[in-house]
Amino acid sequence: MGDSRRSRREFIKTSIALVVGASIASILPRLGTESDTSIDSSLYYEDFVPDPEIDGEEFILYYEALGLIVENRDGEKCLANPLLGDKCIRYFRPYTPNKYLVLPPGADPETFYSKCIRCGLCYYACIRAGYNAIRLKSIGEDGLFRAGTPVVYNQLEYPCTLCMECTKVCPTDALEEVEEKDVRMGIALIDPDLCWGWNSDYCISCAKACPFASEVFEFSYSEWGTHPYVRPDKCTGCGLCIPACPVVGSAIHVLPRQVYSESISDFKELGLEYRDYLELIRRVEDEDPGAAVLRVSINIHYLLERRRAKPPED
Amino acid sequence: MSSIPTRIKQVLIGTPRRGRYTLARRFLQIIVFSLFSIQLVIVWKIVEGSLASSRFLGRIPFIDLFAFVEEVVSSKTLPSVESIVALLVVASLYFFLGRAFCGWICPLDLILALFERKIWEKNTKYTPPRRIRKREIVVPLVVVAIYLFLSFIYGYPFFTTLSPIASTTKLSSILIGVIYNIPGAVIGLVLGWTTILLGVVVLNTVADRLFGVKRLWCRYLCPVGFIYGVLFNKSSSLKIYVDSPEKCINCMLCSNTCPMSIDVHSFVKEKHVDDLRCIMCGRCIEVCPTRVFSFSTRFRRK
Asked: Hey, what CATH class is A112-182 in?
């Protein structure tokens, strides 16, 4: 009797040790691992692959006759970018929540995670203010140690309005109290192939929504449209331009600063820098109107048929 | 084993009877816990944040002392002004109240008590209550050092990130957020923090039921209460004083019921219970059949 009780106790102890050991062993490899923030192209960009059902047979035949149907990396037939010849024309994928996670205002990404004590005050303050811009990171989403840190996750529905409530309640200055214009959450990046302004139209919706429009946005007006430029050193990254954009799924995305610098160095993996691509568009508009018209017509077809975007009203 | 509702009743009112302080304690714990829980769905700013750092009435900041230390260690910079103000508020509060946070505010005290063995249960074989030994100072100190070291090398406040104390209040408020469909309140957070809480409860209950170690979490692993105990229990005004030592009938109820395994009976010949583990729960006062002890402040006794 005593033996059986002892063996049962031994059994319980061993099984508990096993369970504890297994759970520790399963948790340990996740300690301190952070998710990879580098760009996976298929997640962020999509090629224009014409679909006979949506775009029509004539559409494909027309561009085939022009020699503008090429094959992309996966062997699909896609429309070529008239400015770059053999490369597919690429667009940002529609904005979805949690794609680009930016830190709340006043956070310095270098020191933020060591200063934040995961109390959640900023989250509660944001909910209380009614903007709902912040959520807390789950365990395992970005490494075990970043659990409970705040993040601005859905700028299409809940952009940060720069009310600065979260910086006022933060006890440890992980979110520093800064002026609204000194906030550096991220940088807005415009896809010129999706933007109405870059496609022969008059649209300044993003600048109208921007709280510091005159400082952040620059426009070059011409018969080819209102070309918007974002000054990266002035952009706060609040994301108020995203819901204002008439292109469904947003031609403008707000990227975390580090991702931004990676992204513009090889913009949409076209082998060009962002600035150079914009310059190329401007140059082609001046020198080769035929190619520019082709580009605009492809883009507008894509916007109207695929993205179902509304053309901006003057 | 008694059924669950009976157990809840026992924990709430405290048995053996005369659970005046237990009743008050559970009441305060539940009030604080529910105020933290409903903060997402009420209009008034009563309590915001979590037990890592909170704001009372939208004005008065509080910060967990260990979270403050870990933040300084992990960020390797000077603390912010607001956190120092919050720290002073907390320090001045517990300078008078000692380690009362553990017994009167901390939701883990409430939750762990639900699963603990009670003294009247059969086959209770506890490690006997003792005066504080070296191991109960050295082990928590080493644990605190490990937490701080990990925070230092990783650059994250290690314990505060995974702290079940702050997690429990965040867990309940996010759960209510999930129920009311508040953006940003996701079930993943609830599950994560439940895992942490469950881990602690299981660890504590296993130590309690299989090895007879009372409150493994509170006595050895939790740095928050330990730091409050070390810093404030000597200086605190609120203490458990020995009123009438001549009345003691050596029944040892006080020592045996003490949740922190303090040998309260050995303090009868002294002026007051002087132990850094004491969480001011008042169990020894209310179980004593002859009322030897009482809560008192330094000011009231001349």
From this structure: alpha beta
For A183-306, CATH number out of 1.10.3470, 3.30.70, 2.60.120, 3.60.70 equals 3.30.70
Question: Boundaries of CATH 3.30.70.20 in chain A?
Answer: 112-182
Report CA B202 to chain centroid distance, whole Å. 17
B74 and chain A in contact, CB less than 8 A: yes
Mean pLDDT over residues B224-252, rounded?
87
Q: B58 — phi, psi (to 5°)?
A: 75, 0
Cis? peptide before B16, omega within 30° of 0: yes
pLDDT at A81: 86
- Counted domains in chain B: 1
Q: How close, in Å, is residue A291 to chain B by CA atoms?
A: 46
Burial degree of A212 (CB within 10 A; 0-12, 13-18, 19+): middle
CB proximity B212 to A under 8 Å: no
Q: Which of A41-50, B42-51, B99-108 has the lowest mean pLDDT?
A: A41-50
Per-residue pLDDT, averaged over B186-210, amounts to 88
- Nearest chain A residue to B184 by CA: give it: A135
Q: Is the pLDDT of residue B11 over 80?
A: no
By C-alpha distance, which of B167, B147, B168 is closest to B158?
B147
Q: What is the DSSP letter of B47?
A: E
User: What ipTM describes this predicted complex?
Assistant: 0.87
B192 and chain A: CB distance < 8 Å anywhere?
yes
A27, A119, A165, A169: best to mutate for the B interface, most B CBs within 10 A: A119
| β-bridge mates for residue A228, sequence order | A219
Phi, psi of A229 (to 5 degrees): -120, 145
Task: With beta carbons less than 8 A apart as the criterion, state whether A313 and A204 touch.
Answer: no
